[in-house]
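Help!! Second protein's tokens look totally different from the first
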Amino acid sequence: MLTKSSPLIKKILVGNPGWEWLPILITRVSLGLFFSVSGYNKLFIPERHADLINLMNEIGVPFHEFMAFFLASVEFFGGLLLMVGLLSTLVAVVLSIVMIVAISTVEIESVIPKDIGPLDWMSWFLYLPQVLYIILFIWLIIRGPGKFSLDNLIASKLGINRIK
């Protein structure tokens, strides 16, 4: 019989904070890997770089060649930093801004159908992967990069503890 002090009920209702490091690590490394590969392709694969320049030109981004290089560099180096957990909060903020710009300049216009109701529009909007990335970045910004990160190592050396 389950009682209110049962470990099973506790795990079902409140989870297991001792394992919190694992989803933080998986999320941070996965997002970092995704963005570093995406940025790498845009920087070092000539066809992908040309596609990005053309897209930026089409949507009217000023200095589209420089901005393509800048965006690809932010994704590549930001992803690398995120994977190792260095400057994670700053990287999450910057990549969130990149995702907001991508959503507002490309995704809403080209992915979400016109002339649909507000609930259908919201469904399409929430289906965009960039929205999920932003949600995960917000979580990482608030929760921090986790104990297996260079940020945590630096914070420990500086005597900075996570507020409980």
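Here's the second one for comparison:
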Amino acid sequence: MKEKIIKKAGELFLKLGFKSITMDDIACEMCISKKTIYKYFCNKELLVEESTNFMHKEVHETINTILSMKLNAIEENFKIREKFSEMFQSSVDSSPIYQLKKHYPDIYSKVVLREITECTMWFRDNITRGIESGLYRKELDIEAYVQFYYTLIFSLHENTSSEKEAQRLELQALEYHTRAMSTDTGIIELEKQLQNPNTK
């Protein structure tokens, strides 16, 4: 039951917002008593933290699935962004990350530290493989570009209240990041990805 509550709470927080969803809302949605929820979670903040942990696992399972597809470095980045857009498309207009930072700053800080650690490893691997395959320039300072990109992405999401606008800017950031690193061959692959109907 605890895992079911965490999963349902996460879905509702993403769809309707961390602030607006109450314990009553979650209980009503699951057709259980609020007492049942409090059996596992003494307050909403604990449930928010557990649900963000659950969403973190889902996000990284999705990334690992895409990594296992062995796509080229540029296609991989666009595929991951596409999947994220699908995951967050049912969100209220207010960005979940923006809401988390505003209403639960301590939880947000933990999420960011964890995400930066894992995303750094993923970004570094992506750039290394892109260089090896000739899509990215050989002379790149890998660590600098890793830091540039995660700083840009996290800043964008935490300071943009609209999820729709955050996703639009994220696509612009991905194009900007890719163009800055790409060889002529990489630019051709980038243009191909930008023409993909799933790239919105």
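Reply: Different proteins will give different token patterns, so don't panic. The mean pLDDT is 88.
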